[in-house]
Specification:
The chain is α/β, with parallel strands linked by helices and 332 residues long. The protein has helices spanning 14-25, 51-58, 76-89, 105-109, 131-138, 173-197, 229-238, 305-311, 323-331; strands at residues 6-11, 29-34, 39-41, 46-48, 62-64, 93-97, 115-119, 127-128, 142-149, 159-166, 212-213, 245-249, 252-262, 273-277, 280-284, 289-297, 303-304. It folds into two domains: 6-213, Formyl transferase, N-terminal domain (Rossmann fold); 218-331, Formyl transferase, C-terminal domain (Methionyl-tRNA Fmet Formyltransferase, Chain A, domain 2). 30% of the residues lie in helices and 27% in strands. The strands form four sheets. Strands 5-2-1-6-7-9-10 form a seven-stranded mixed beta sheet, with helices on both faces. Strand 12 (245-249) and strand 13 (252-262) form a beta hairpin. The longest helix has 25 residues, at 173-197.
């Protein structure tokens, strides 16, 4: 590598931390990290630093945690402190990965090479907050990572580098996230090398095929048994680990973590338990049957079907609540 770049890094979750780790491993200098403020987490709801902050502190990197970067917004003092820190860092480039704040124009213009974003989809498909979840939910055959030159729009900047990845039939958001995080870190290191040598070739995003990956809402967790087994299976996988697909049986809310699909025809009402044994809980859907193989009762542990059924009686003929009843329960 030629002379290392000075890189400001902006990111918050584990996906971003993996990219920061690879940037540091490649030998670049990171004088400043921007990340979200510490948030309550865990059963004790104690303040917890983000994965990026924890990594930065282990490497003795200065950390800024502004509530906003807008100088004319609700937290102008926070933004002014961050602006001074960014100026002092005298960076060549900023790398952004799942940061969680909108970057105003002054931020985009601050480093001489601008801001590079690591985005976990094949743009322009799945712009927005939850591209991994939405790709699985939609049944996409492939996804990938794009390194994008950021502009003032929402994931609208020019594409610099792209790498693709097949989505496996049993992929969850958790498993796909890990592979994409590794890919994103490697790709941004390559982008930084290309930036140093002037090899980056910006490509405009296509104007067709644009989809917006809306942020995941907890209310989406409730399973609609009128949907096909294929659609429900995709949602189970898309919402693993958050917010976890759930179904209500009487007064019990049960999280569904893993399932398989049986395309058999049946004449049962949607939501009816057809059978429940060590091989899984088979539930009638609008089309086909969903065989749930890993479940969790409220307050309990994630268990395979055999272990779950030892402590929770489920018999053929019982029926999960319809979607409307589940949503009402989630709101209460």
């Amino acid at each position: 590598m030629s002379q290392p770049l000075r890189v400001i890094f902006a990111g918050t979750p584990e996906f971003a931390a993996q990219a920061l780790a690879q940037i540091l491993k490649a030998g670049h200098t990171v004088p400043l990290v921007l990340t979200q403020p510490d948030r309550p987490a865990g059963r004790g709801m104690k303040l917890q630093a983000s994965a990026v902050k924890q990594l930065a502190e282990r490497h003795h990197i200065a950390v800024a945690q502004p509530l906003s970067l807008r100088l004319d917004g609700k937290y102008p003092d926070d933004a002014a402190v961050a602006q001074a820190a960014i100026a002092q860092a005298n960076a060549d480039v900023m790398v952004v990965a799942a940061y969680g704040l909108i970057l105003p124009q002054w931020t985009l213009d601050a480093p001489r090479l601008g801001c590079l974003n690591i985005h976990a989809s094949l743009l322009p498909r799945w712009r927005g907050a939850a591209p991994i979840h939405r790709a699985i939910e939609a049944g996409d055959a492939q996804t990938g990572v794009v390194i994008m030159q950021m502009d003032a729009g929402l994931d609208t900047g020019d594409m610099l580098l792209t790498d693709k990845l097949a989505i496996a039939a049993d992929d969850t958001t958790a498993s796909l996230h890990d592979r994409l995080a590794d890919m994103g870190g490697a790709l941004v290191v390559r982008a930084l090398a290309d930036a140093q040598s002037g090899k980056l070739q910006p490509v405009k995003q296509p104007e067709s095929g644009i989809c917006y990956a809306h942020k995941i809402d907890k209310a989406e967790a409730a399973v609609d048994w009128l949907q096909s087994a294929d659609a429900i299976d995709r949602r189970v996988r898309a919402f693993n680990p958050f917010p976890a697909a759930s179904a209500q049986l009487g007064t019990d809310v049960i999280k569904l973590w893993r399932a398989t699909v049986d395309h058999m025809t049946h004449n049962h009402a949607a939501g009816t338990v057809i059978s429940a044994d060590a091989h899984g809980v088979r539930v009638a859907c609008g089309q086909g049957v969903l065989c749930v193989t890993e479940l969790q009762r409220a307050g309990g542990k994630r268990l395979n079907a055999a272990d779950f059924l030892r402590g929770f009686a489920l018999t053929a003929g019982q029926c999960f609540e319809p979607l409307s009843a589940q949503k009402n329960d989630l709101k209460s």
